[in-house]
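Researcher: Next sequence.
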Amino acid sequence: MSIRIFILLIFPFPVLAQIPPLTMETAVQLALQQNKGLKSAAAAVDYYRKLVGTSGELPKTEVSLQYGQTNSYVSNDNNYTVSQTIPFPSIFGAKKQLNNAQVDKAVWLKASTQNELIYQVKQVYVQLLYLQEVRRLIIHQDSLFANFVRTADLRYRTGESRMLEKTAAEGRLNEVRNTLRQNEADIQIYNARLQSLLGTTAPITISESVIPEADMLLTNDSVAVAANPQLQYLKQQINIADKQTKVFKAAILPDITVGYFNQSFIGTPVNASGSPLATNNNRFQGFQVGLALPLWMGPLKAKVKAEEKQQLAASLQYDNNVIQLQSQYEQAVQQFIKNRNSLEFYQSTALPNAALLLKQSEKSYSSGDIGYAEYFLNLEHGLAAQQGYLLAKNDVKQAALYMAFLTGQP
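Model: Next structure:
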């Protein structure tokens, strides 16, 4: 018996599926498969597609029976009538166009939901990468300040320094370890956020270790945001209002009524001679055709005018969102450029200087060439440069992700 079967026999309880370590792309794919919000948007598309089949809906057929003294004193005369009201034919085409427009709106809403989901997954994933890089830096800081504490303690015991130096080193070491605990809590928070986006409660880990480089093709803002699915969704709202207006206009046209009746005239002469008389077996039949006309046009015309205002409102909302997205994209471009310039500064100047400063300061302090105050200041300066580099790298990537979101790029 294998170990797996033995465990299942001993513990016959459902176990959460283990999710392999995730790259950014596999995290996105898993979210697209499992996220409940996206599934809801997909279900809405199916719902509106089914509604297209209702475009040719007719009112219920009316079948009626009239029985009793309908023609004479005879009490068992009867009349069977079947009638059907048919809206003016143009309304069927108008309703189908409206339903198709509703399908398109649902499709764009799903696309918008998917675009936002992809952005959120990548945003959280990159933030986790940043926090993990920060964690490694904090552990490095812990090592540096632990060495600082040991050296300061040794100098204090040999009488080369005062208690203040040892106390300052221990205080800074405790601050670093507190920062590490906060960092670990932040990692757990963002892990939970990623779980919710992926639609799972199973434990997850990410396989990448560093923030990937951000490459972004900068384009004109008006061209870039044109493909944003949210804009396409809002544009479809204008189309829906137009189609709804046509439905209301078609509803003003008269309905057509057609019918058939079959009845008895018991005791009535069946011919001009007056004999014989009709019985229940003699049936008289005919057809009827009519129009249902609106006697009061005011409310129907008011619906048309109201929907025209709705179309105007949707158009203005679309225009406003175009302006807002263009502005957001331009701001994102400037933010990207600013952060990229900062990152280049750290890579070319600040990091090499910081590495040299930390190395030389540690040697000088250990040898007694500099005091604890100067060493402490140099440590903080060098570590601040490393922290700034990580922050700049994260900011550049996050800005690139936001630009991709605004332009509707996957």
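Model: Confidence is low (pLDDT under 50) at residues 1-15. The beta strands are 62-68, 77-86, 255-263, 284-292.
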